[in-house]
Amino acid sequence: MGALGFIVTDWLIPQIKIFLLKKGISGKDLGKKGTSIQDKDVPEALGIVPSTVFMISLIICLVKFANEHHDKLLDCNSALLSVCFMMFLGFTDDVLDWPWRYKVILPSVATLPLLCCYEGSTSILVPRFFRSFLMKGDDVTSFGKFVGLFVIVDTQANGAILELGLLYFVYMGMLGLFCTNAINIYAGINGLEVGQSVVMACSILIHNLLEIRNNSLSYENHLFSAMIMLSFIGVSVALLRHNWYPASVFVGDTYCYFAGMTFAVSGILGHFSKTLLLFFIPQILNFIWSCPQLFKFVPCPRHRLPRFNAKTGLMEPSTFACKPNECQWLKAKLHDTGGVNMTVINLFLQLFGPMTERSLCISLLFFQLFSCAIGLYIRYSVDLFD
Q1: Contact yes or no for 218/272 (Cβ under 8 A)
Q2: CA 179 to CA 290: how far, in whole Å?
Q3: pLDDT per position as a tens digit, 5-17
Q4: Residue 335: pLDDT above 80?
Q5: pLDDT-based confidence at 330, cuts 50/70/90?
Q6: Angular region, 325: left φ>0, alpha ψ -120 to 50, beta rest
Q7: What is the greatest pairwise CA distance in the chain?
Q8: 3-state SS class at 139
Q9: How confident is the model at residue 382, as a pLDDT?
Q10: 3-state SS string over 249-294?
Q11: How far apart, in Å, do the first and last CA atoms of the chain sit?
Q12: Phi and psi (nearest 5°) for 179?
């Protein structure tokens, strides 16, 4: 279904973008200011095409999967419901431009169907170097007693296991919120949103295949996740062909929310929601570095994407306006009236210098690939828990 999804998506995008242009669902490429194509209308919200094809592919796959695994029927329906909800939210956001408060609340609501049918473990393994803080010999430490006010410290396992209970469901709800918005704020140049999603999806698929090969206790869950990822990769690669530099279409929030929720569905129902975060290292770094602007401690403009220098043809770090005595730590020069926007994309340009948009995207995707490889290495080679 992945190959079929690629073919159908690749064929549909040129057809659908005509309708979106007629309806005025388009925008200007801010990374092309000062060039001959700066006023060209680029159709937006083309994420609706791969997400729709993905839903159809998944429904077809799930008919066979659910017939062979009757106990997974509820998981299948909840996955479809959650992804469809976020696809709808993303498309309406592209059309209506929802305020941020709705974008924060609604993804958590979309995860509720997943949480209602979750039947996996709600406990976590504590890294070996941290267990001594919870227990000394057979006695629980003062810190362990404090932690025990919120979760259950398994004394039979010598502090190696924490039973989170309801807090684990809160974590999974927050995971859905993070995944959908993390891709959305780590964006702004042609090909990056889809490119990073394809790299993460391939990493998740590799993880699933390794677990299936090793006959994991969650064999069926990883089989379910692998089926989702194959369809997702197919439609995403097709979209990437049209969104790659120079982009002929924009993916919009539709794709970002759809991709994020697909990853959350795969991690939660595949029972590897903790491992999933190992593939989001660049997104986690971008969120942490962006926090001062996201929470308004530092001025935050509407767009924080890099600035295109038409004279050199290179992308440079974008800035926000501020007074000469403010945000000195974000300024290139002491008396500048603008601080550099706090995103990993701009940070890359600060560290490695101006570069073309295509080179910048490729560099960031290599960083994503390297981070996912590190995540897989940590998961399978670093002995933190035994």
Answers
A1: yes
A2: 15
A3: 899 999 999 999 8
A4: no
A5: low
A6: alpha
A7: 73
A8: strand
A9: 65
A10: CCCHHHHHHHHHHHHHHHHHHCCCHHHHHHHHHHHHHHHHHHHHHH
A11: 38
A12: -60, -45
Give the number of other CB atoms < 10 A from CB of residue 315. Answer: 26
- Determine the pLDDT at residue 102: 77
DSSP 3-state assignment of 206?
Answer: helix
Q: At 26, phi and psi to the nearest 5? A: -155, 170
| Element counts in the chain: helices (H) and strands (E) | 15, 11
Residue-wise pLDDT tens digits, 107-138: 888 888 888 878 777 888 777 777 888 888 77
66-71 long-range contacts, Cβ below 8 Å, gap at least 24? 69/220, 69/224
Q: Which amino acid is at 74?
A: L
How far is it, in rounded angstroms, from Cα 261 to Cα 178?
9
Please provide residue 58's backbone torsions phi and psi, each rounded to the nearest 5 degrees: -65, -40
Give the strand order in the sheet containing 152-153: 123-125, 161-163, 152-153
Chain-centroid distance, C-alpha 248:
23
What is the phi/psi pair of residue 320, to 5°? Answer: -120, 150
pTM: 0.89
Provide the token pair at 127: 């890294």
The span from the CA of 268 to the CA of 302, in Å, is 32
Q: Which of 28-42, 186-200, 262-276 has the lowest mean pLDDT?
A: 28-42
| pLDDT over 60 (residue 228) | yes
**Taking Cα atoms as reference points, which of 172, 245, 236 lies closest to residue 200?**
236
Residue 287 confidence class, pLDDT cut points 50, 70, 90: very high
